[in-house]
């Protein structure tokens, strides 16, 4: 099997594809807990949210990387397309909730997911893709083609 | 007429309300050009985008401040509600495209618009509201209740 150029990972070891309902039983929520710990989702909650996002069509894409060997979800990420009035009714992609399973890090999998999310935004006609990250992740996103720009502010309820 | 506490602006001089189709002729697009200069929108483009956003219901709110005296739009801002799987299917408000007409600045109008956008996100059940801004605007958003958090990265097509 061919190696993915520069990524140091067997390109066929993982299949990157849109989230499916069956991914609940493939460890999708356990993976997300590595990003933000919280109580497990019920199947009902997962299915409801899945349906809400599906109704947004290509304006909200969740990608997962399935380990071809184990069938488990090893990475995930999302992109939300925002429709604006500025920039002649331009659209912007917001990359959110990128996570790679602790046991699968260091193989270029996160970069592959991010690049696929960026490609989706580009294909939807976005003029830019933005994301927020901790300062430690600047290097990772720079490798994915991003440049630092502005500051993020947050208000927590 | 009563003054809005702390804002130094006559609370009745501006009416803050959701964007309406008629706002195209009240200077909405001229105002947005102060945020990001671009060629004027056609009425068709404006109406199409308006309809697309209306279809998102309360998940995408554009607020404007109409000058009660002149009938012109003096400020605007938007909030987009993102539906996540993390945080037990939590939702996050993204504040975007806040702008105050150059002639109406320094009267607390921007803060009033931002606070109304934040209230909308809170009422929709968001666990936080986030936004990106240039470093010079940190003080303004701190006054609106935001704290600095992380960095914004961007990829421009």
Output the keywords.
5 helices, homodimer, 157 residues, 5-stranded mixed β-sheet, globular, Aminopeptidase, 28% helix, alpha+beta
Overview of the structural elements:
Two copies of one chain form a homodimer. The model of chain A is unreliable at 1-8 (pLDDT under 50). Chain A is globular and about 45 Å long. Chain A is built from five helices and six strands; from the N terminus they run E-H-H-E-E-H-E-H-E-H-E. Chain A is of the alpha+beta class and 157 residues long. Chain A starts with 13 loop residues before the first strand and ends with a strand. The relative contact order of chain A is 0.16. Chain A has a five-stranded mixed beta sheet. The first copy, chain A, has a single domain, classed as 3-Layer(aba) Sandwich (Aminopeptidase), CATH 3.40.630. At the A-B interface, helix 1, helix 2, strand 3, helix 3 and strand 4 of A face helix 1, helix 2, strand 3, helix 3 and strand 4 of B. Chains A, B: It is a peripheral membrane protein.
Quick overview:
Two copies of one chain form a homodimer. The first copy, chain A, is an alpha+beta fold. Chain A is 28% helix and 32% strand.
H-E order of chain A: EHHEEHEHEHE
- How much is the radius of gyration of chain A in Å? 16 Å
Task: Please outline the major beta sheet of chain A.
Answer: 5 strands, mixed
Number of strands of chain A: 6
Proportion of residues in extended strands of chain A: 25-35%
Subcellular location (chains A, B): Endoplasmic reticulum membrane
Main location (chains A, B): endoplasmic reticulum
Subunit structure (chains A, B): Homodimer.
Family (chains A, B): Belongs to the acetyltransferase family. GNA1 subfamily.
């Amino acid at each position: 099997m061919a190696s993915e150029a520069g990524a140091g990972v067997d390109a066929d070891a993982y299949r990157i594809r849109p989230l499916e309902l069956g991914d609940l039983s493939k460890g999708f929520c356990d993976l997300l807990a590595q990003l933000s710990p919280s109580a497990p989702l019920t199947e009902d909650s997962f299915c409801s949210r899945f349906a809400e996002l599906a109704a947004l069509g290509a304006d909200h894409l969740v990608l997962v990387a399935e380990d071809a060997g184990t069938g488990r979800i090893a990475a995930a990420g999302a992109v939300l397309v925002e429709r604006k009035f500025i920039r002649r009714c331009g659209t912007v992609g917001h990359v959110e909730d990128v996570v790679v399973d602790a046991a699968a890090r260091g193989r270029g999998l996160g970069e592959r997911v991010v690049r696929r999310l960026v490609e989706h935004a580009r294909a939807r006609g976005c003029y830019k893709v933005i994301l927020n990250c901790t300062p430690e992740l600047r290097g990772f996103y720079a490798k994915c083609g991003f440049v630092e720009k502005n500051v993020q502010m947050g208000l927590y309820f």
